[in-house]
Amino acid sequence: MKGGKLIIFSAPSGSGKTTIVRYLLEQPELNLAFSVSATSRPRRGKEKHKEHYYFMTVSEFKQHIKNDDFLEWEEVYRDNFYGTLKSEVARLWAEGKNVIFDIDVVGGLRIKKKYPKETLAVFVKPPSVDELKIRLKKRSTESDDKINMRIAKASVELATAPQFDKVIKNYDLDVALKEAHQLVAQFVNDPVSDEEE
Question: What φ, ψ does residue 54 adopt, rounded to 5°?
């Protein structure tokens, strides 16, 4: 696969990465397209297939793993798979776009490892784990058990921040959006060096 740039935004759930990614997608000069992930989890609310996720059954997802169709994949919780289809990135690159991901930290780092020069990996840090808990509760989309699982996972995820190219601290959303825009604009306008390839 050869094409544009890959921009990864990873963070614990509730850090604001989705808000940042949505904002960046609205900036035409960045020429971004969103990479829709595949998942085996059930749809929530008004989610649409191919728009929010490629929804699959667990067995379909496992078949794609067997066929080596994923750029990265992970079993986030038992039988709850998420992954990035190679075909999705190839499709967006064929459209001449830079691909932006709103993705789990493990998946983000895997893509960075496969495409080190084409990838900018950004970690979004919440003000604190307590603030994260407040944000997740405000969403009212999940049970307390699910929220506690996410908080436990967040502590592990926060420890991976130094492995990312850049860390944005989301204490103030406007500041975080500006910082994200600057980083991405600089990266997409930077030519990829072919010397080492």
Answer: -90, 105
